[in-house]
UniProtKB/TrEMBL annotation:
InterPro entries: Lipid/polyisoprenoid-bd_YceI, TTHA0802/YceI-like_sf. Signal peptide: none annotated. This is Polyisoprenoid-binding protein YceI. It comes from Mucilaginibacter gotjawali. Pfam families: YceI (PF04264). It comes from the Bacteria.
Amino acid sequence: MKNFKTQVLSITTAIALAIFFVLPQSLKAQANYKASPGKDVSIKVLGSSNIHEWNMTATGIESQGQFKFEGGQLQALTSFGLVAEAKSLKSESTSMDGRCYKTIKADQYPKITFKLSSATVTAVQKNKYTIKASGELTISGSTQPVVLTVTAVVNPDNTITCTGAQKIKLTDYKIDPPTFLLGAMKVYNDLTIQYNITYKAI
């Protein structure tokens, strides 16, 4: 009887140890990551006109995603969202900023958002991946499907840096390319959104 109790105790102890060591790893296999405004977040909008090229940088950004790892390798991005405050877009000219806010109706639609629908992850090399992220981009109250091609790098401190660029057209979001100075300056329809964002586990 004593040997039976000892065996039961040993089995119970083994199960408890297995749960103790394995469960935390499984919990970490799929973790939430977050990026907040600061030096690790950069989103730029690049455009041009018949007079000069221009760019604006967004500072009011919040983003969160759920990254899944298996065997130390990034396997999937299961959820993801990004919100940028429209009036956090800044250029070198306050007058240009005001014209931009008016063009994109920032008072009426204060947020620019991206919401993930699905994603595929492909390993490129050690700790470097390409993510094809399909989702919906909303600007000035208009939503369009987009596919982002993201380069994701898992850093030594386990943060994840995501970089890439996406071309869009203003008219796709029901925004008429603006003109200024009685039509002397015309903003072109094509824009490029560049992003470099580092995510930390939370």
